Amino acid sequence: MLKKFWIVTNDGKDTNHAVTEKVKELLEIAGRSCILCEKDAEKNIIRERIPDMIDCAIVIGGDGSLIEVARTLWKRDVPILGINMGTLGYLTEVEVSNLAEDITQMLKGDYLYEERMMLEGMFPNGKKDVALNDIVVSRKGDDLRIIYFKLFVNGELLNSYEADGIIISTPTGSTAYNMSAGGPIVEPTASLTVITPICSHALNTRSIVLSSDDEIVIEIGEGRRGNIEKVLVTFDGATSVPLETGDRLTICKAKESTKIMKINKISFLEILRRKMKGN
What we know:
Rossmann fold; ATP binding; NAD/diacylglycerol_kinase_sf; NAD kinase; EC 2.7.1.23
């Protein structure tokens, strides 16, 4: 039974914390313990103040808020329930209009878990970071020049690129930047990796779908005149790490996954259909 809940609120969405307080009230009436997330002055989660024992994290906001929590709780195997405070989301599944009914259903144990694959990126210095949506290599700063890089898969050169960047996406992230860049939409519980160049300077460059077991290496090349290229590696649009010519980024499937709590019976295809209809 889920007993201890950690509630994370997007203060820009639930401005007066009315939804947050309602969720807290519903949980406490049912005899559950709940702790509100503590943030710093810049609205960042204070990791040191996250409780050691959590049965479930409830995120009040949008998909971006849920992704932030998923990265924050990496390696802790805590299921996440999203309460949608924005437009129709792919990850935040509880609507405010059904809040009491859905929370009650969850407390009765009527829910499922979806395991969502994550990507792990490792840098030459051994440091690592993870992404639920995507890892993006792009130009650094205001430089409008294309960047040059090589892509290796399992140690074998796949292609050399001249492009604005490249997106390495999970199935969950296939409906985000990957889709905007012309990449394929993938069923989110699948286990594979999508590679989509950004504005590639080649006519025959398309997205590539690989097994999640494949190891991907991106090597930053020299500029056209032999100059040092400077790029940024960004994880889920949040943290960024600079790289330059000669550096390598290794990407593989993370050992840990994100556990998304599913309460309603709306399928991914139904959400996708609504999104397409809305556009």
